[in-house]
Amino acid sequence: MTNTAQSIAESLCTFIRANLVADGVEVTPATPLVQMGLDSFSLIEIVLFVERQYGLQLPDEALSQENIHSSETLANYIHQCL
């Protein structure tokens, strides 16, 4: 299966909805992660999910504000790394 940036973003959104946010919180690929109420501990959970799901080791530099602004920006970064 080919992982597109869009499919990665949807996978991230599904994980976030199921594990990190309260019911009723808007979770879309473009929604800023901080707007969802996510904190640094949530980010660690997302990184662990990405590493398990896609077999990537994300370097600390990958966690720049630019890359982790939203599921969409993180998915674009992950897609470039695959």
Biggest sheet record: none
Under CATH, the topology is which? Non-ribosomal Peptide Synthetase Peptidyl Carrier Protein, Chain A
State the secondary-structure class: mainly alpha
Give the % helix.
Answer: 40-55%
- How far from one another are the termini? 12 Å
The overall pLDDT average reads 95
User: What would you say the CATH architecture is?
Assistant: Orthogonal Bundle
Radius of gyration, CA atoms, in whole angstroms: 12 Å
User: Unreliable segments (pLDDT under 50, ≥5 consecutive)?
Assistant: none
* Content of β-strand: under 5%
User: What is the molecular shape?
Assistant: globular
Q: Could you give me the name of the CATH homologous superfamily?
A: ACP-like
How many separate helices?
A: 3
**Based on DSSP secondary structure assignment, what is the total number of beta strands?**
0
CATH class membership: Mainly Alpha
The SSE order reads HHH
